[in-house]
Amino acid sequence: MPLFPLRRIASFKPGQFIPRLSTPYTPRRFFYGHISDSKMAPNLEPFFKEYAVAIPSISAQDENRKDVFRMAQFLADELEALGAQVEQRPLGKQPGKEHLDLPPVVVARYGNDKNKRTILVYGHYDVQPALKEDGWATEPFELTIDEKDRMYGRGSTDDKGPVLGWLNVIEAHRKAGVEFPVNLLCCFEGMEEYGSEGLDDFIKAEAKNYFKDADAVCISDNYWLGTEKPCLTYGLRGCNYYSVSITGPAQDLHSGVFGGSAHEPMTDLVNVLSKLVDAQGNILIPGLMDLVAPVTDEEMALYGDISYTMDNLHESLGAETGIHPTKERTLMARWRYPSLSIHGVEGAYSAPGAKTVIPAKVIGKFSIRTVPNMESPDVNKLVFDHVKAEFAKLNSKNKLDVWLQHDGKWWVASPKHWNFSAASKAVEQVFGVAPDMTREGGSIPVTLTFEQATGKNVLLLPMGSSTDAAHSVNEKLDRRNYIEGTKLLGAYLHYVAEEPISA
Ligand SMILES: C[C@H](N)C(=O)N[C@@H](Cc1c[nH]cn1)C(=O)O
Ligand SMILES: [Zn+2]
Ligand SMILES: [Zn+2]
User: Fold this and answer.
1) Which of 81, 102, 164, 395 reaches 20 to 30 Å from 192, CA-CA?
2) Is 369 annotated to bind ligand?
3) 3-class DSSP state for residue 63?
């Protein structure tokens, strides 16, 4: 494959004419839902309000399930319009919530040339919850672009931007009249932010069917370590998500009448939660750290070379509240040690004001990010035993229950594979630097499943940067990352086509 088409794809700019293209190239899909951007406005469709960031496809909230389905339909329609063969595969009912259908997996094939490599790309079209009242400066489901070309909106970086990046790559090739370098298989799911319910079985079933031609897998669903230098990622932490409920009185109580004379669920819960993790991030569950693989000298030597500073951490935190004094210790805490986070309490009074209520039932939520060699059943046993033992020490007459909501496995692979070499060359082509090789603190539950079920190498190729605030308020994707990231995905596919077949 000559480099010419690659250069052409990798060097166009938004709004710039490229050969054989009658209109300026604009990755228009992402800009549906946004009208005031003058550069993009001429290319917007009149029905813009319906799409992409504008669809609140929140998988964790039952009332948004219809929106998750709408988002699947949007993607399927877009892929079909681009000439892909698309199917929406049902996954059945949601376990534990049988009144809800799981959103479909949108699978697609673009190209079926036996002489080309086949790349399977995975992404997710569901998003985390978001409310303006959480502290967003703009409406979370209206894409808003500021004067620094930062594109704000829930899902912008996690993971609608990267998913649409793959579609933009197809569109760019079609508009430019450039032959597509590989066959592309797409697998886009709608439950990733809720533990990828149902997808493991689907991947295992399709590994030797729909995905059988895949030569390698690429996932664009994580972030650079900083804001300037891209990275390729070869490891993820897992995630075990727990709920602990405490119930007592038959209904909420007046604290003046019952305070001091009844065991209070919220008091018990706060006591139990305080025994999980200390203020320095140390997990207080006996035996848990014994499950963690020891650090080797070889691994220790890797951290120093990574382009990361404490300033990068402070920039993405928006504060100087890091726990550890050095970048090495910070990266290890994020990549290779477990962490325990307390996320919230259902049933507790959280509105402004001073209501003097004693909640009758509260449910605390926490999760543990897991690492090699922690196995989920071992972690669960230690968690359940510890929570029950700490509750027993309170001598409360309330009732406690603790359970696992969902778990996802950690993953660490070898980056010594043509899949990573191709991505590395693409980063150098598009950004002019060699990428850092990183692991990631977040979780993409199906990564290991793809690796094991297909037997193929899996690469994580992120588009967004460390300041994107995924899962937080004011999530954004910089326009530069979106445009250059789209080029990166395209260039990667061209380099994949050039990698020696024997590798
Ligand atoms: C890294 C990826 N973009 C992501 O955000 N994954 C989620 C997946 C999840 C949700 N519950 C458990 N895992 C994450 O890491 O929180
Ligand atoms: Zn994601
Ligand atoms: Zn996410």
Assistant:
1) 81
2) yes
3) helix
**221 ligand 1 Cβ < 6 A:** yes
The yes-or-no answer on residue 375 being catalytic is no
Residue 58 DSSP label: B
* CB of 376 closer than 8 Å to CB of 409: yes
Catalytic residue among 159, 189, 192, 268: 192
Q: Which residue has the tokens 């569950």?
A: 285
Does residue 443 have its Cβ closer than 6 Å to ligand 1? yes
Catalytic site includes residue 305:
no
> What is the set of domains in the chain, with CATH numbers?
5-236+411-498 (3.40.630.10), 238-293+336-408 (3.30.70.360)
User: Any binding-site annotation on 215?
Assistant: no
**Which residue in this structure is represented by tokens 């729909």?**
210
pLDDT tens per residue across span 248-302: 999 999 999 999 999 999 999 999 999 999 999 999 999 999 999 999 999 999 9
- Given a contact cutoff of 8 angstroms between Cβ atoms, the answer to whether 239 and 448 are in contact is no
- Residue 159's nearest CA partner among 186, 184, 132 is 186
What span, in angstroms and rounded, lies between the C-alpha atoms of 261 and 251? 15
Does the structure's ipTM exceed the value 0.85? Answer: yes
Cis bond before residue 159 (omega within 30° of 0): yes
Residue 11 alpha carbon to ligand 1 centre in Å: 32
